[in-house]
Amino acid sequence: MESNRRGASAGRGGxxxxxxxxxxxxxxxxxxxxxxxxxxxxxxxxxxxxxPAVRKAAFIKGxxxxxxxxxxxxxxxxxxxxxxxxxxxxxxMCSRRDAxxxxxxxxxxxxxxxxxxxxxxxxxxxxxxxxxxxxxxxKKEYVLLNKPKNFTTYAEGDKTGxxxxxxxxxxxxxxxxxxxxxxxxTTGLLIFTNDADLIRKFSLPNQKTFKIxxxxxxxxxxxxxxxxxxxxxTLDGHRLFIDEVSYxxxxxxxxxxxxxxxxxxxxxxxxFESFKYDVIKIDRVSFAGLTKKNLPRGNYRHLTEQEVxxxxxx
Length: 314
What we know:
The chain is α+β, with helices and mostly antiparallel strands. Among the domains are: 81-135, RNA-binding S4 domain (Structural Genomics Hypothetical 15.5 Kd Protein In mrcA-pckA Intergenic Region, Chain A); 142-204 and 297-313, 2-Layer Sandwich (Alpha-Beta Plaits); 211-287, Alpha-L RNA-binding motif (Alpha-Beta Plaits, 2-Layer Sandwich), CATH 3.30.70.1560. The chain contains seven helices and 19 strands.
């Protein structure tokens, strides 16, 4: 019985012992790998000939890897191709808006063919006819003049005065036109340009830009008239708002500073004449933020790029 039990026991467990390679070793808790902080560089192996450790790039969610394929570059803008209405405007004939009207009416030809399509593009080498005359686009030029006396902006001029165009003749190759008008006795800032859009903008009656004038009167401006001016005046049935009026510091009370939006110097004269004052002199000392600083009377200068941007953004 006892021997049988031993045999049975050996028969049952013998095969298990043959399959097993021995008792399993207990887990070594101390051999558990330590956690490594993100982006922590491993210490370099000091063994001779050992390869340097390479750190794998970590990818941030939502961000493409550095070696990802670049986006296709935008097609370069062809500066020798522009819209027909801009071509006409750059030539100084009229504004873009008016150019569209001429195009629609069939008064514009490109290389001998009438073009009525809006948005039509032309090359600088194309031959463009505007209302029967060949035109070429020009580089835009902007010149600020400190106008002296005895020069007028009127095209015909008169016997005693000369045209202000003489004073800016050497400013550039383009044909420059003044923004607004000035008579012989009025002095101060005057802008010249071949930009038809800018000329049109500052010729509109609902001006947003301020002009400052220094006005010399034949007698002192009375206090009651000063108060009345600050409230605005009515000329030819139209109410004119005056933004600011003041006496010139350190000057007699015949010297008045007035700030308003009209570019028409005739209106400035009419304001004081309506209060029974004779205007001896009008000098425009500021135009849309531009001043006479470092610009002697009779001299001109080209506007900076930033000054042009400011004028266009007003």
